What does this fold into?
Amino acid sequence: MPAGSSTPRPRVYDAMLADHFARNRQMAFVSGPRQVGKTTLCEGLIEPGRLLNWDNVDDRRTILAGPASIARAASLDQLRDQPVTVGFDELHKFPRWKSFLKGFYDTHGKRCRVVVTGSSRLDVFRRGGDSLMGRYFLYHMHPFSAGEVARTELPETLIRPAVRVKDAEWDALWTHGGYPEPFLKRDRRFSLRWRESRFQQLVREEIRELGGVQSLGQLEAAAHWLAEHSGATLVYSSLANDVHVAVDTARRWVDTLGFLHFGFLVRPWFKNVAKSLRKEPKWYLRDWSGLAEPGARAETFVACHLLKTVDAWNDLGLGRFELRYLRDKQQREVDFVVIRDGKPWFLAEVKHAERQLSPALAYFHEQLGTAHAFQVVLEMDCVNADAFNGARPIAVPARTFLSQLV
It folds into this structure.
């Protein structure tokens, strides 16, 4: 697709929702940050008139009129060989959205498929108690990744064959990030303005709508602080001191910014869960494109790819996966370990250009008995080979390694 194209581009999430409805009767909840492409996804899946957006006054009136009104608007009273798909966008802004959905699904769920999309706050409210248990499956939508720009079909196996990502696609991902609009437009000036606009929208709109934050100015300062520390161990006391708030407040703000998909935490892995929770996590931005330091950018780039893949494997029911990191008392550290069904599966140490293997990679590989151990190098020529074909620690091109993920 040429740079600057406005034509919707197929996503792996199209295939994910098609697979969901082929297998399940439950509603599909699609959660993710603003501007990640949720509405575009639904517009390609749902016929006009059957996608109701709470932010649209006319659609809101239809929703407030009750399930019967929606059933009439969607023509659910007509005989069909296949159920139609009905979608609700930003419905979580409706204070009684859970009871509304429960009533609609219980009454009309056999005659239609239901997709519910929302910004990150869909996850926030979901944590407060779940009257919809058993009636939906949740899917986490992420920006474009190397694996997705290479192919959009669902993975038949956890690890797919390596495929060469086109130079223009790879450069666009690295330069403009994976959010659809800047990734597809590929204009540096636009990307800079888009990042700033997104930051202001998150801090001044989404957080205000969530409520409970007294000083937006200090929280904005905390967000800037976190943006400068992507890939670093998060010391809450340092953040609290720099923005002049209590440590508990700093923790709460980090949690809020995480719920809103500004960034995410990666916690250390220990067999003892309580010990893991006591140790300091690492913090990563959701958008690597604004990071100037090559090492932090490389690590954040890979972190976002790994998180997207782990979420996809979990959402597809392929196992129980977690993204963690490793550090011991001797300060040996590996950037990432992917946990599969409770056991360390593979390690990934990220470098921008360094190809000499980190001693910590070999140490933890031997100690934990992981199946694979990678030093993922951004500035390394792509090779058409399976990075997962072997058990010994190895330096691999990021372009090869990431193409095998989702």
